[in-house]
Amino acid sequence: MNHDLMRQLAEILPRIQGFIYPNEIEIHWGMLIVVYPYITGVVAGAFILASLVKVFNVKEVQPLYRLSLLTALAYLLVAPMALVSHLGHPERFYEILLTPNTSSAMAMFGFVYAWYLMAVLLLEIWFVHRMDMIALAEQHRGAMRFVYRALSLYSRDTSERAVAFDHSALKVITIVGIPSAFLLHGYVGFIFGSVKANPWWSSVLIPIVFLFSAIVSGIALVILLYMIINPLAGGKINMKCVDKAVDFLFYAVIVDFSLEMVDFIHRVYQSEEEIKILSEMVMNKLFLSLVVIQVLLGMLLPLTLISITKIFRKRFGASEDLRKMVYFLSVLLIQFGIFATRWNVVIGGQMFSKSFRGLTTYKMEFGGLEGLLYALGLLILPLVILTVLLKILPPWKEMKELRGGAAGGGLETAGS
What is the DSSP string of 77-102? Predict the structure, then answer.
Protein backbone atom coordinates (compact mmCIF):
# COMPACT_ATOMS: atom_id res chain seq x y z
CA MET A 1 0.00 0.00 0.00
CA ASN A 2 2.82 2.40 0.86
CA HIS A 3 4.52 1.62 -2.44
CA ASP A 4 1.32 2.41 -4.36
CA LEU A 5 0.90 5.69 -2.49
CA MET A 6 4.50 6.69 -3.14
CA ARG A 7 4.11 5.85 -6.83
CA GLN A 8 0.95 7.96 -7.10
CA LEU A 9 2.62 10.88 -5.36
CA ALA A 10 5.62 10.55 -7.67
CA GLU A 11 3.27 10.93 -10.66
CA ILE A 12 1.27 13.82 -9.21
CA LEU A 13 3.91 16.00 -7.54
CA PRO A 14 5.70 17.02 -10.80
CA ARG A 15 2.40 18.52 -12.00
CA ILE A 16 2.08 20.78 -8.95
CA GLN A 17 3.28 24.36 -8.93
CA GLY A 18 3.36 26.17 -5.58
CA PHE A 19 1.53 24.88 -2.49
CA ILE A 20 -1.59 22.68 -2.72
CA TYR A 21 -3.29 20.75 0.07
CA PRO A 22 -3.59 16.97 -0.49
CA ASN A 23 -7.36 17.09 -1.06
CA GLU A 24 -6.90 19.64 -3.88
CA ILE A 25 -4.60 17.53 -6.06
CA GLU A 26 -7.21 15.63 -8.10
CA ILE A 27 -9.20 17.19 -10.95
CA HIS A 28 -12.59 15.48 -10.73
CA TRP A 29 -14.28 16.91 -13.84
CA GLY A 30 -12.38 15.79 -16.92
CA MET A 31 -12.91 15.46 -20.66
CA LEU A 32 -16.50 14.21 -20.42
CA ILE A 33 -17.61 17.39 -18.67
CA VAL A 34 -15.78 19.38 -21.36
CA VAL A 35 -17.58 17.48 -24.14
CA TYR A 36 -20.97 17.79 -22.46
CA PRO A 37 -21.44 21.61 -22.62
CA TYR A 38 -19.91 21.66 -26.10
CA ILE A 39 -22.53 19.21 -27.43
CA THR A 40 -25.47 20.94 -25.73
CA GLY A 41 -24.19 24.24 -27.11
CA VAL A 42 -24.30 22.89 -30.65
CA VAL A 43 -27.92 21.79 -30.07
CA ALA A 44 -29.00 25.24 -28.91
CA GLY A 45 -27.10 27.07 -31.66
CA ALA A 46 -28.40 24.85 -34.46
CA PHE A 47 -31.98 25.34 -33.28
CA ILE A 48 -31.54 29.12 -33.12
CA LEU A 49 -30.32 29.06 -36.72
CA ALA A 50 -33.41 27.07 -37.72
CA SER A 51 -35.65 29.56 -35.91
CA LEU A 52 -34.38 32.35 -38.18
CA VAL A 53 -36.48 30.81 -40.96
CA LYS A 54 -39.76 30.08 -39.20
CA VAL A 55 -39.93 32.90 -36.66
CA PHE A 56 -37.86 35.73 -38.14
CA ASN A 57 -38.63 34.86 -41.78
CA VAL A 58 -35.02 35.03 -42.99
CA LYS A 59 -35.54 33.36 -46.36
CA GLU A 60 -31.86 33.42 -47.33
CA VAL A 61 -30.98 30.71 -44.77
CA GLN A 62 -33.88 28.47 -45.82
CA PRO A 63 -31.46 25.85 -47.25
CA LEU A 64 -30.05 25.32 -43.75
CA TYR A 65 -33.41 24.88 -42.02
CA ARG A 66 -33.87 21.11 -42.14
CA LEU A 67 -30.16 20.42 -41.81
CA SER A 68 -30.12 22.56 -38.64
CA LEU A 69 -32.99 20.60 -37.09
CA LEU A 70 -31.46 17.22 -37.89
CA THR A 71 -28.07 18.38 -36.57
CA ALA A 72 -29.71 19.52 -33.34
CA LEU A 73 -31.45 16.15 -32.98
CA ALA A 74 -28.27 14.14 -33.65
CA TYR A 75 -26.31 16.06 -31.02
CA LEU A 76 -29.20 16.11 -28.55
CA LEU A 77 -29.40 12.30 -28.60
CA VAL A 78 -25.73 12.13 -27.58
CA ALA A 79 -25.79 15.04 -25.08
CA PRO A 80 -26.70 13.05 -21.94
CA MET A 81 -24.20 10.26 -22.69
CA ALA A 82 -21.21 12.30 -21.50
CA LEU A 83 -22.93 13.31 -18.28
CA VAL A 84 -24.35 9.87 -17.53
CA SER A 85 -21.02 8.17 -18.29
CA HIS A 86 -19.26 10.50 -15.88
CA LEU A 87 -21.56 9.41 -13.03
CA GLY A 88 -19.88 6.00 -12.88
CA HIS A 89 -23.15 4.04 -12.91
CA PRO A 90 -24.90 4.97 -16.17
CA GLU A 91 -27.42 2.16 -15.69
CA ARG A 92 -28.99 4.17 -12.86
CA PHE A 93 -29.79 7.26 -14.94
CA TYR A 94 -33.56 6.62 -14.74
CA GLU A 95 -33.48 7.32 -11.00
CA ILE A 96 -33.07 11.03 -11.78
CA LEU A 97 -36.60 10.99 -13.23
CA LEU A 98 -38.10 8.64 -10.64
CA THR A 99 -36.73 10.49 -7.60
CA PRO A 100 -36.28 14.10 -8.77
CA ASN A 101 -34.27 16.51 -6.66
CA THR A 102 -35.71 19.92 -7.51
CA SER A 103 -32.95 21.74 -5.62
CA SER A 104 -30.26 20.28 -7.90
CA ALA A 105 -29.72 22.09 -11.20
CA MET A 106 -27.84 19.08 -12.57
CA ALA A 107 -30.65 16.68 -11.64
CA MET A 108 -33.27 18.91 -13.29
CA PHE A 109 -31.43 18.52 -16.58
CA GLY A 110 -33.32 15.27 -17.16
CA PHE A 111 -36.63 17.13 -17.25
CA VAL A 112 -35.30 19.99 -19.36
CA TYR A 113 -33.83 17.45 -21.76
CA ALA A 114 -37.06 15.42 -21.98
CA TRP A 115 -39.13 18.56 -22.60
CA TYR A 116 -36.82 19.86 -25.32
CA LEU A 117 -36.49 16.47 -27.05
CA MET A 118 -40.10 15.30 -26.93
CA ALA A 119 -42.16 18.49 -26.90
CA VAL A 120 -40.02 20.72 -29.11
CA LEU A 121 -37.44 19.16 -31.41
CA LEU A 122 -39.12 15.87 -32.34
CA LEU A 123 -42.46 17.60 -32.87
CA GLU A 124 -40.96 20.24 -35.15
CA ILE A 125 -39.04 17.67 -37.19
CA TRP A 126 -42.20 15.56 -37.52
CA PHE A 127 -44.31 18.45 -38.80
CA VAL A 128 -41.53 19.53 -41.18
CA HIS A 129 -41.17 16.05 -42.72
CA ARG A 130 -44.74 14.76 -42.44
CA MET A 131 -45.63 15.36 -46.09
CA ASP A 132 -42.28 13.97 -47.22
CA MET A 133 -42.70 10.82 -45.13
CA ILE A 134 -46.15 10.21 -46.65
CA ALA A 135 -44.69 10.58 -50.16
CA LEU A 136 -41.68 8.38 -49.34
CA ALA A 137 -43.96 5.69 -47.93
CA GLU A 138 -45.73 5.57 -51.30
CA GLN A 139 -42.46 5.41 -53.23
CA HIS A 140 -40.79 2.66 -51.20
CA ARG A 141 -41.61 -1.00 -50.78
CA GLY A 142 -40.86 -3.51 -48.05
CA ALA A 143 -39.32 -2.53 -44.74
CA MET A 144 -38.64 1.11 -45.63
CA ARG A 145 -42.30 1.61 -46.51
CA PHE A 146 -43.25 0.38 -43.05
CA VAL A 147 -40.57 2.65 -41.50
CA TYR A 148 -41.87 5.77 -43.22
CA ARG A 149 -45.49 4.94 -42.39
CA ALA A 150 -44.56 4.41 -38.76
CA LEU A 151 -42.56 7.66 -38.66
CA SER A 152 -45.49 9.56 -40.14
CA LEU A 153 -47.74 7.93 -37.51
CA TYR A 154 -49.74 6.48 -40.42
CA SER A 155 -50.89 9.94 -41.43
CA ARG A 156 -52.14 10.24 -45.02
CA ASP A 157 -53.82 13.64 -44.96
CA THR A 158 -52.22 15.78 -47.68
CA SER A 159 -54.99 18.35 -47.98
CA GLU A 160 -54.34 22.09 -48.02
CA ARG A 161 -55.96 22.37 -44.61
CA ALA A 162 -53.54 19.81 -43.15
CA VAL A 163 -50.54 21.54 -44.74
CA ALA A 164 -51.69 24.91 -43.37
CA PHE A 165 -52.00 23.36 -39.91
CA ASP A 166 -48.45 21.98 -40.23
CA HIS A 167 -47.10 25.46 -40.96
CA SER A 168 -49.02 27.03 -38.08
CA ALA A 169 -47.87 24.33 -35.66
CA LEU A 170 -44.27 24.77 -36.79
CA LYS A 171 -44.29 28.47 -35.99
CA VAL A 172 -45.78 27.91 -32.52
CA ILE A 173 -43.34 25.10 -31.71
CA THR A 174 -40.36 27.17 -32.87
CA ILE A 175 -41.43 30.14 -30.74
CA VAL A 176 -41.68 27.85 -27.72
CA GLY A 177 -38.41 26.19 -28.70
CA ILE A 178 -36.29 29.35 -28.59
CA PRO A 179 -36.54 29.90 -24.80
CA SER A 180 -36.35 26.12 -24.37
CA ALA A 181 -33.03 26.08 -26.24
CA PHE A 182 -31.79 28.92 -24.07
CA LEU A 183 -32.86 27.00 -20.98
CA LEU A 184 -31.18 23.80 -22.18
CA HIS A 185 -27.75 25.37 -22.48
CA GLY A 186 -28.16 28.34 -20.17
CA TYR A 187 -28.53 26.09 -17.17
CA VAL A 188 -25.03 24.68 -17.86
CA GLY A 189 -23.58 28.15 -17.46
CA PHE A 190 -25.85 28.64 -14.45
CA ILE A 191 -24.29 25.58 -12.75
CA PHE A 192 -20.77 26.95 -13.13
CA GLY A 193 -21.72 30.54 -12.35
CA SER A 194 -23.46 29.57 -9.11
CA VAL A 195 -20.34 28.00 -7.57
CA LYS A 196 -19.44 30.95 -5.34
CA ALA A 197 -16.38 29.28 -3.85
CA ASN A 198 -14.67 29.18 -7.25
CA PRO A 199 -13.68 32.66 -8.53
CA TRP A 200 -12.97 31.31 -12.04
CA TRP A 201 -16.64 30.29 -12.39
CA SER A 202 -18.48 32.63 -10.05
CA SER A 203 -19.64 35.34 -12.44
CA VAL A 204 -23.10 36.58 -13.39
CA LEU A 205 -21.97 36.73 -17.02
CA ILE A 206 -21.09 33.03 -17.27
CA PRO A 207 -24.62 31.86 -18.29
CA ILE A 208 -24.87 34.62 -20.91
CA VAL A 209 -21.40 33.86 -22.28
CA PHE A 210 -22.34 30.17 -22.49
CA LEU A 211 -25.51 31.03 -24.42
CA PHE A 212 -23.80 33.18 -27.04
CA SER A 213 -20.90 30.78 -27.44
CA ALA A 214 -23.54 28.07 -27.99
CA ILE A 215 -25.16 30.13 -30.73
CA VAL A 216 -21.74 30.65 -32.32
CA SER A 217 -20.82 26.94 -32.20
CA GLY A 218 -24.18 25.75 -33.54
CA ILE A 219 -24.32 28.17 -36.48
CA ALA A 220 -20.67 27.53 -37.37
CA LEU A 221 -21.11 23.75 -37.30
CA VAL A 222 -24.24 23.78 -39.48
CA ILE A 223 -22.43 25.97 -42.05
CA LEU A 224 -19.47 23.60 -41.95
CA LEU A 225 -21.69 20.53 -42.44
CA TYR A 226 -23.59 22.23 -45.25
CA MET A 227 -20.37 23.04 -47.11
CA ILE A 228 -19.26 19.41 -46.78
CA ILE A 229 -22.50 17.47 -47.28
CA ASN A 230 -24.06 19.40 -50.14
CA PRO A 231 -21.20 18.89 -52.64
CA LEU A 232 -20.97 15.23 -51.60
CA ALA A 233 -24.71 14.88 -52.33
CA GLY A 234 -24.22 16.25 -55.83
CA GLY A 235 -25.56 19.74 -55.16
CA LYS A 236 -24.06 23.18 -55.47
CA ILE A 237 -23.40 25.40 -52.46
CA ASN A 238 -25.85 28.29 -52.30
CA MET A 239 -23.49 31.20 -51.62
CA LYS A 240 -26.35 33.61 -50.96
CA CYS A 241 -27.40 31.32 -48.09
CA VAL A 242 -23.86 30.89 -46.77
CA ASP A 243 -23.17 34.63 -46.96
CA LYS A 244 -26.27 35.39 -44.89
CA ALA A 245 -25.54 32.66 -42.34
CA VAL A 246 -21.96 33.89 -41.99
CA ASP A 247 -23.30 37.40 -41.39
CA PHE A 248 -25.31 36.14 -38.40
CA LEU A 249 -22.30 34.12 -37.24
CA PHE A 250 -20.10 37.21 -37.51
CA TYR A 251 -22.41 39.28 -35.29
CA ALA A 252 -22.78 36.41 -32.79
CA VAL A 253 -18.99 36.07 -32.49
CA ILE A 254 -18.65 39.82 -31.90
CA VAL A 255 -21.24 39.71 -29.10
CA ASP A 256 -19.65 36.60 -27.58
CA PHE A 257 -16.17 38.10 -27.69
CA SER A 258 -17.44 41.38 -26.23
CA LEU A 259 -19.11 39.60 -23.32
CA GLU A 260 -15.94 37.65 -22.57
CA MET A 261 -13.91 40.84 -22.65
CA VAL A 262 -16.39 42.54 -20.27
CA ASP A 263 -16.09 39.56 -17.92
CA PHE A 264 -12.28 39.76 -18.10
CA ILE A 265 -12.21 43.53 -17.49
CA HIS A 266 -14.59 43.12 -14.56
CA ARG A 267 -12.31 40.53 -12.94
CA VAL A 268 -9.24 42.73 -13.42
CA TYR A 269 -11.06 45.79 -12.09
CA GLN A 270 -12.16 43.96 -8.96
CA SER A 271 -8.59 42.75 -8.37
CA GLU A 272 -9.57 40.56 -5.46
CA GLU A 273 -7.19 38.21 -3.68
CA GLU A 274 -7.49 35.48 -6.32
CA ILE A 275 -6.42 37.71 -9.25
CA LYS A 276 -2.74 36.83 -8.82
CA ILE A 277 -3.21 33.05 -8.99
CA LEU A 278 -5.72 33.36 -11.85
CA SER A 279 -3.31 35.50 -13.85
CA GLU A 280 -0.55 33.01 -13.22
CA MET A 281 -2.81 30.17 -14.34
CA VAL A 282 -3.78 31.96 -17.56
CA MET A 283 -0.21 32.86 -18.48
CA ASN A 284 1.27 29.46 -17.62
CA LYS A 285 -1.24 26.61 -17.58
CA LEU A 286 -3.87 27.93 -19.99
CA PHE A 287 -1.83 30.15 -22.29
CA LEU A 288 -2.03 27.79 -25.27
CA SER A 289 -5.69 26.82 -24.89
CA LEU A 290 -7.02 30.24 -23.83
CA VAL A 291 -4.86 32.94 -25.37
CA VAL A 292 -3.72 31.13 -28.52
CA ILE A 293 -6.56 28.74 -29.44
CA GLN A 294 -9.64 30.37 -27.89
CA VAL A 295 -8.91 34.07 -28.40
CA LEU A 296 -6.42 34.37 -31.28
CA LEU A 297 -7.29 31.37 -33.48
CA GLY A 298 -10.89 30.81 -32.39
CA MET A 299 -12.16 34.40 -32.39
CA LEU A 300 -9.86 37.13 -33.64
CA LEU A 301 -8.56 35.31 -36.72
CA PRO A 302 -12.05 34.23 -37.96
CA LEU A 303 -13.39 37.74 -37.29
CA THR A 304 -10.52 39.24 -39.27
CA LEU A 305 -10.92 36.81 -42.17
CA ILE A 306 -14.68 37.29 -42.38
CA SER A 307 -14.36 41.08 -42.08
CA ILE A 308 -11.84 41.26 -44.93
CA THR A 309 -14.02 38.99 -47.05
CA LYS A 310 -17.12 41.10 -46.39
CA ILE A 311 -15.26 44.27 -47.37
CA PHE A 312 -13.90 42.74 -50.57
CA ARG A 313 -17.29 41.20 -51.39
CA LYS A 314 -19.06 44.57 -51.23
CA ARG A 315 -16.37 46.71 -52.86
CA PHE A 316 -14.50 44.43 -55.23
CA GLY A 317 -16.76 41.39 -55.59
CA ALA A 318 -14.70 38.61 -53.98
CA SER A 319 -14.94 35.35 -55.91
CA GLU A 320 -17.11 32.49 -54.63
CA ASP A 321 -14.16 30.11 -54.41
CA LEU A 322 -12.25 32.55 -52.21
CA ARG A 323 -15.26 33.10 -49.97
CA LYS A 324 -15.85 29.37 -49.66
CA MET A 325 -12.26 28.81 -48.59
CA VAL A 326 -12.33 31.67 -46.07
CA TYR A 327 -15.71 30.65 -44.65
CA PHE A 328 -14.70 27.00 -44.34
CA LEU A 329 -11.48 27.89 -42.53
CA SER A 330 -13.28 30.38 -40.28
CA VAL A 331 -16.06 28.05 -39.11
CA LEU A 332 -13.50 25.29 -38.54
CA LEU A 333 -11.35 27.57 -36.39
CA ILE A 334 -14.43 28.71 -34.48
CA GLN A 335 -15.22 25.09 -33.56
CA PHE A 336 -11.74 24.67 -32.09
CA GLY A 337 -12.12 27.98 -30.28
CA ILE A 338 -15.47 27.09 -28.70
CA PHE A 339 -14.22 23.67 -27.62
CA ALA A 340 -11.18 25.40 -26.09
CA THR A 341 -13.59 27.72 -24.27
CA ARG A 342 -15.31 24.74 -22.67
CA TRP A 343 -11.92 23.24 -21.78
CA ASN A 344 -10.71 26.46 -20.16
CA VAL A 345 -13.88 26.85 -18.10
CA VAL A 346 -14.15 23.25 -16.89
CA ILE A 347 -10.48 22.27 -16.49
CA GLY A 348 -9.19 25.76 -15.67
CA GLY A 349 -11.60 26.11 -12.77
CA GLN A 350 -10.00 23.09 -11.09
CA MET A 351 -6.32 23.90 -11.62
CA PHE A 352 -5.76 26.35 -8.75
CA SER A 353 -5.90 25.63 -5.03
CA LYS A 354 -8.67 26.95 -2.83
CA SER A 355 -6.01 28.73 -0.81
CA PHE A 356 -4.87 30.55 -4.00
CA ARG A 357 -1.29 29.40 -3.41
CA GLY A 358 -0.60 26.80 -6.09
CA LEU A 359 -1.52 25.26 -9.44
CA THR A 360 -1.85 21.74 -10.71
CA THR A 361 -1.93 20.21 -14.21
CA TYR A 362 -4.61 18.04 -15.77
CA LYS A 363 -3.23 14.76 -17.07
CA MET A 364 -5.66 13.31 -19.58
CA GLU A 365 -5.97 9.55 -19.92
CA PHE A 366 -6.18 7.86 -23.32
CA GLY A 367 -8.52 4.96 -22.53
CA GLY A 368 -11.37 4.52 -20.08
CA LEU A 369 -14.60 6.47 -19.62
CA GLU A 370 -12.74 9.68 -18.78
CA GLY A 371 -10.14 9.24 -21.52
CA LEU A 372 -9.47 10.89 -24.85
CA LEU A 373 -10.64 7.90 -26.91
CA TYR A 374 -14.09 7.79 -25.35
CA ALA A 375 -14.47 11.58 -25.65
CA LEU A 376 -13.59 11.43 -29.35
CA GLY A 377 -16.16 8.68 -29.75
CA LEU A 378 -18.84 10.93 -28.24
CA LEU A 379 -17.84 13.75 -30.59
CA ILE A 380 -17.98 11.46 -33.65
CA LEU A 381 -21.21 9.66 -32.68
CA PRO A 382 -23.52 12.64 -33.50
CA LEU A 383 -22.05 12.76 -36.99
CA VAL A 384 -22.82 9.05 -37.43
CA ILE A 385 -26.39 9.60 -36.21
CA LEU A 386 -26.73 12.61 -38.51
CA THR A 387 -25.63 10.46 -41.46
CA VAL A 388 -28.43 8.00 -40.70
CA LEU A 389 -30.97 10.79 -40.26
CA LEU A 390 -29.97 12.32 -43.59
CA LYS A 391 -30.51 8.96 -45.28
CA ILE A 392 -33.98 8.58 -43.78
CA LEU A 393 -35.06 12.24 -43.89
CA PRO A 394 -32.88 13.94 -46.52
CA PRO A 395 -32.95 17.76 -46.35
CA TRP A 396 -32.71 17.94 -50.14
CA LYS A 397 -34.89 16.71 -52.97
CA GLU A 398 -34.22 13.48 -54.83
CA MET A 399 -30.89 13.26 -56.65
CA LYS A 400 -32.73 13.00 -59.93
CA GLU A 401 -34.25 16.43 -59.34
CA LEU A 402 -30.93 17.82 -58.13
CA ARG A 403 -29.30 16.82 -61.39
CA GLY A 404 -32.20 18.27 -63.29
CA GLY A 405 -33.58 21.78 -63.21
CA ALA A 406 -32.91 22.24 -59.51
CA ALA A 407 -29.27 21.13 -59.72
CA GLY A 408 -27.98 24.60 -59.07
CA GLY A 409 -29.95 24.90 -55.85
CA GLY A 410 -28.74 21.92 -53.90
CA LEU A 411 -30.12 22.19 -50.40
CA GLU A 412 -31.86 25.46 -51.18
CA THR A 413 -34.85 23.40 -52.36
CA ALA A 414 -35.24 21.99 -48.86
CA GLY A 415 -37.24 23.32 -45.96
CA SER A 416 -40.19 24.57 -48.00
Answer: HHHHHHHHHHTS-GGGTTHHHHS--T
Q: What is the largest CA-CA distance in the chain?
A: 78
CA distances (Å), origin 221, targets 6, 44, 238, 287: 46, 12, 16, 25
Rounded alpha-carbon distances, angstroms, from residue 234 to 38, 187, 408: 31, 40, 10
The enclosing H or E element of 390 equals: helix 372-392
Residue spans per domain, the chain? 27-194+365-404, 252-362
Instruction: Tell me: pLDDT of 292 over 90.
Output: yes
What does 294-347 look like in DSSP terms, one character per residue?
A: IIIIIIIHHHHHHHHHHHHHHHT---HHHHHHHHHHHHHHHHHHHHHHHHHHHT
d(CA 169, CA 129): 13
Alpha helix positions (H), 140-286 = 143-151, 160-193, 206-232, 239-270, 275-284
Q: CA 340 → CA 78, 209, 252, 284, 297, distances in Å?
A: 20, 14, 17, 16, 10
Contact call for residues 382 and 77 (beta carbons, < 8 A): yes
Cβ atoms of residues 212 and 48 within 8 Å? no
- pLDDT per residue over 321-367, tens digit each? 888 999 999 999 999 999 999 999 988 888 887 777 778 777 787 87
